[in-house]
Amino acid sequence: MVTANTGFGSVWNKGSWHWENRNYTEFAKEFLSREWATISLKANDALIEVYEIKELKGSASVTIRKGKQIFLWEFEGELYWRAKGTKEGEAWKDLKCQGKLKLHEFNYEDDEIAVEVTCEQPGAWEDGVRQAVRKQLPVEL
Q1: Which string of b and e fits 90-128 if b means at least 16 CB within 10 Å?
Q2: Is 49 domain-assigned?
Q3: Backbone angles phi, psi at 47, to 5 degrees
Q4: For residue range 86-119, what is the model confidence (pLDDT) as tens digits?
Q5: Which residue in 63, 103, 112, 138 has the fewest CB atoms around it within 10 Å?
Q6: Which residue range(s) make up the domain with 73?
């Protein structure tokens, strides 16, 4: 029976007993960039989308030892987001704002991602969007 953490090493590593490490950094960066670029959420009368992954630094690897897989990763990055919304029957029409989400170092041990959110435009609606980005976007990531 194969379990989720059972690892299979190289041909030379019979029984996957010896330490073996494989670098998956480029795969992880491509995967995260592709997946994060599709994120959109609705909050505070706005549709919020990630439109660019500006920077993604870090590493990812799979280690096999004593027949078990150990997944290790550590990244930090910078994403750009934009929001648009409308309020029917009020003075606001076609509201738009955008900003940056800085992901501070996160890794395989973290349950939460520490973020810093900036918004280019000031205003009450924009502050609500910024708060939604701060609370909801890390969950999606």
Answers
A1: eeeeebebbbbbebeebeeeeeebebebebeeeeebbeb
A2: yes
A3: -105, 120
A4: 666 554 457 788 899 898 888 777 777 788 888 8
A5: 112
A6: 14-140
For tokens 């609606």, what's the residue? 125
Say which CATH number the domain at 131 has: 3.15.10.20
Beta bridge pairs of residue 74: 59, 107
Contact 140, 39 (CB under 8 A): yes
The answer as to whether 7 is a domain residue is no
Residue type, 76: E
Tokens of 122: 């000031």
Place of tokens 């918004």: 119
Residue 1 in any domain: the answer is: no
Would you say residue 9 lies in a domain? no
If DSSP states are collapsed to H, E and C, what string results for 81-121? EEEEECCCCCCCCCEEEEEEEEEEEEECCCCCCCEEEEECC
Between the CA of residue 115 and those of 16, 70, 105, 139, what are the distances in Å?
38, 26, 9, 11
